[in-house]
Amino acid sequence: SQARKGAKGGKASKGGGRRSERDKLLPEVKKLKSQGKSNRAIADLLNIGSATVSRWLK
Q1: How far apart are CA 37 and CA 15, in angstroms?
Q2: 45 lies in which domain range?
């Protein structure tokens, strides 16, 4: 089968390999949100996507 490609040309992630990153960053995401930061600002500060921030805060 042909490997799926991500937006930047690499293999597309199915999301399973980033659990430890989420576990490390989620407390900081929640802290920044409680300080009134926007999802975009949080994403920029932590070098993650704003959609990721939104998904983690659901």
Answers
A1: 25
A2: 17-56
